[in-house]
Design brief:
Blueprint (H helix, E strand, L loop, with lengths): L2 H10 L6 H17 L6 H6 L13 H6 L9
Protein name: DUF2281 domain-containing protein
Organism: Pseudanabaena yagii GIHE-NHR1
Length: 75
């Protein structure tokens, strides 16, 4: 049996007057799971990153990393 089939089998054992309580629990669980999902993807977050660096930063990254050039001329 699949997990869904096992769940359905257990639900079928519940008395009719207790189904509303089960429904409310399932609804709460579904809402909690959807509320924790990220609203934006990682790529969208990365697009919003602003980097301030000199205009030659990418071309001279090694020199900036080893200290030959400094980051005083940020534009």
């Amino acid at each position: 049996m699949t997990l869904k089939e096992l769940i359905y089998a257990e639900i079928n054992k519940i008395e009719e007057d207790n189904l509303d309580e089960l429904y409310q629990f399932v609804k709460q669980l579904a809402n909690a799971k959807s509320a924790t999902k990220p609203k934006t993807g990682i790529l969208n977050k990365l697009k919003r990153i602003k980097i301030q660096a000199p205009v030659d930063f990418a071309a001279n990254i090694d020199q900036y990393m080893n200290g030959e050039k400094n980051l005083d001329n940020i534009h």
